[in-house]
Design goal:
about 160 residues; mainly alpha
Length: about 160
């Protein structure tokens, strides 16, 4: 009887983990889809200040807030309830985790090297500070997402 309860508890933890990971993945996907046109404009129009509309900023903020809530709650309360037996699957999770951060790192590099010199204190406005905070929040969310995928890929099977 105790084994059945433990099995049901593990099943619930796994379902909850997968739901939270799916929400995080959906938020990350929305951020990529929303930021990709911005990224290409940055590349094509180097040096031009690129504005992101208020609705897109609100969407990015919402995605970051939902993502971070899921991530930190799961990290504090759930752990990774899966063990990876397959080396191939483990490597795929590790690869996707690192690849997911590559996009964010590329975007960050482009913005830092091209636009940070323009951020002299005399040029700062409250809107530009808020955009920088949102940018770092998105970048941090990508970092957390890549860590989550790596954690999942490094989880060894019990023998």
């Amino acid at each position: 009887m105790g084994s059945g309860l433990a099995s049901a508890g593990l099943r619930k933890r796994r379902v909850l983990y997968l739901v939270l990971l799916a929400i995080q993945t959906a938020c990350a996907t929305i951020l990529v889809l929303e930021l990709m046109p911005f990224f290409w404009r940055l590349v094509d129009e180097l040096g031009e200040v690129q504005d992101i509309s208020a609705p897109r900023q609100a969407l990015a903020f919402t995605c970051v807030a939902i993502f971070q809530a899921c991530y930190w709650w799961r990290l504090a309360n759930l752990g990774v309830p899966f063990a990876t037996r397959s080396q191939v699957i483990s490597h795929l999770f590790l690869f996707v985790g690192r690849l997911s951060f590559l996009f964010a790192a590329t975007l960050a590099s482009l913005i830092f090297f091209r636009h940070v010199p323009l951020l002299a204190p005399s040029n700062l406005t409250s809107a530009s500070v808020l955009r920088m905070v949102l940018f770092f929040a998105v970048l941090f969310s990508w970092f957390c997402f890549s860590l989550e995928l790596e954690r999942l890929g490094k989880r060894p099977a019990r023998t």
